[in-house]
Structure formats: structure tokens, C-alpha cells
Model the fold of this input.
Amino acid sequence: MAPSPATADNSIIDAWTSVLLILGVATILGVNAVLLHATNRRANGRFVRPLLRIATGRPRARSASLTTELPLAGAVENNSTAMTSPMPPPATRADSEVWQAARTWVNWDPNEWTRAIVQGWIENGDLDSARRGLMGKRLAFGTSGLRGVMGPGFCRINDLVVIQTSQGLCRYLEKEGGEEFKSRGVVIGRDHRQQGGLSSAGFANLAASVFISRGFRVFLMDGTVATPLVAFGVSQTKACAGVMVTASHNPKKDNGYKVYWGNGSQIIPPHDAGIAASIARNLEPWQLYDPESAIAGPLCSDPTEHIVEEYFRGIAKGLCRRPEANARSGLEVVYSAMHGVGDSWAQRAFSCFSLPPYVSVRCQSEPDPEFPTVAFPNPEEQGALKEAMLLAEERGIDGAFNSFVCAKLWQARQESAHLLAVNSTGDLSRERLRTWSL
Done:
């Protein structure tokens, strides 16, 4: 017997409730989704008309919160290693400070690529490049951690800045929790970004080696992971902190260093200021780090399988309330990972909720640090969802959405769209969904 219109209506509402629950859970933990528009092609009524804009917080600025400015590392004396290349004659005291900063950089930086660039500035007497890279405001640590362009210099993100940041965080955790925090450990994950000789993988491994050097356990997640898995992993392993190496939806040249406290939440004051001050006191590398040896040692383990299984078991058990209704909903939707790491995780989330498989934008489904089809992978940006919308139109599908590693907004694309707030539990009941339908 064919389902009545009322039954069909309820099924599609149940299905979209599940989709919104999936996206709501991700939002709480730091993932972003963009819901463009959705229509029940089987039911008589249109319950979600183009389009909804669902805001879960203020739009993220391109850079992390810059709450504390650290001193320039170039001002720190370092007499342990002598420069082997000739120094250009300084014209002024200010010029002398620039070349001193360059000398410090070459002595401290373990990365051949960035070290060679700064060495080139020295050998060529390129004062302007040296001043821009080494004497501007260094990346400051705030509640969003660090975020900036990958490249040489204290105002960018690179191996040396990651070492300095990890050393400062390490000392702060020692002060706050001592041996207890060391035994609880730190969860570390990363995305797929890469620029020149710098990469998220390298940053994550360096951070791990810093913590291991001070006797911390390290839970280093294997491969690329979605940001919520690090936040969840901190709570699951009872770690004292977590680090996620990602620049979220920023352009391809950017990267970042996000920090979570032992409750699995992003750090808040006064921890941000305390960590920033600790970084300023620990700028010189403690040792020449060997990430490969450190990761192979007894203090490092891979918790990925356990964390992933518990995460999806938890959302299936706690949030999937009507799997049978989801399965018969006939929901059709297009999804794009925008060259991020989300496709495999989104597939599994849909499966946990017994939703029909979505149609993936294949040219954007694999992680690609070049982001070849979208210059700025932020769903708020004009044209960022072009491929998803073209595929939806081609297939005659009325719904399209996107997720990227850790963005914040569900974005509408029509001026007539209304705002819809997702509450802190990510719960959208059938009654509320009906009320808020446009």
C-alpha cells in the first residue's frame, strides 16, 4: 500500500531532522556544514524552501584570535652557533637587529626549505624580505590557537614556530598538572595541508616529539582526521589537552595550530594568555628534535581506530531516533568535501543514521592541499559551492550541502533566506522543524 501524504511528510521531516542532527553534532565539536536547500521530491508539500541560513556563531575571521603579542625571537641572544655565511654590513642599528634575527633563525630552524630561504636573504643582502619575515608582529597565540600563512619567519607558521608553540604549551601543562598531566597525555591530529617544505604532517610530528621529550604520553592520530575526532578523542582518552593542525576553511597557503583543554573544548581565558606567556619564555629549541625516533618510542600510540569507533557508535546510539523513517525517506542530497578530509566521515555519519547515500562531488571528494577547484574553501565565499550546485542541477536534486574541516556556518545563497538558530545540543525536533520550515 502506498504511504499516505501525511506518512511521506513525516518521513522526510524525520530524515532532514537526522541530517541536521549530524551537522549539529559536528558544529558543537568544530565542523562546518552548509545546507543550501532541500525539497521532498516525493511528498506533496515543500518543507524547506530555498534557502536556510543557519548560523551557529559569529563568522570566523581568517586569522586566529590575536590576543597576545609575543616578543620577536630575533631579539633573543644565541651564542651557541656561529653563522658560516658572511653578514652584510649593517647601515643602522635597526638593520643590525634584522640581521641578528636572521642569524637566530638560521641557527634555530630545523627545516631545510625555510632555513635556505632566510640564508638566501642574508647572502643576497635582501634587507626588505628579512625585515618583513623576521621583524613584523609574530604570530600571536589566542583562544583559537595560531593561524597564518606557511613560510619562513616569526610572523608565519613553520617548523620553528610550531616547536616554539609546542614547547610553551608543554611547559604550561607541566605547571598546571605536573606528572598527572604527563600520564594523561596529549591527543594530536592533523589535516592534509602542504606548502613547499612545510606540511600539517610535519607539524603534527614535531609537536608530538616536543611533548615526548618531556615525558608526556602522546596519542598521535594516524593520517588525516576531521577536527571533531581530536576534540572527542581528548575526552575519550581522558587526555589533558589536544592539538589539531589545520587552517579550517582558509586558503591553501595557510595552516593553524588549535588547542583543546582536557574537557575536549577549545581553550578559554586565562589559559590562552598563560600559554602565550609560556611560549615567550621557551623560544629557543630545547634540543634537535627527531620526530621519527620519538614517534617510534613507547610514549607514542595511535588511538585512531578506538576513537573513530566510539565517536560513531555514540552518535548512532544517542542521536539517531528514527532509523526506519530515515531509510524510507527517499532523501536526495549532494555533498562536497571541497578538497578537505570530510568525505569518508560524512559517508559514515549518513550510514549511522540509516540515511540514503548522498551524491558526492567527485572532483572535490579527495583531500588535496592544492584545492584545485576552489581558491578559498569557505562556504561563505561567493562561488565556493559552484560544483555542488551544478551537480545538483544536473541530477535534478534539490538539496546540496558541504562540510569542511572546522568551519562554523550553514550558509544560504538567496537574499530571501531566513535565519535559523541551532541550539547548543544540536537538537531539532520534528515540531520545531515544522515550525521553522519556510
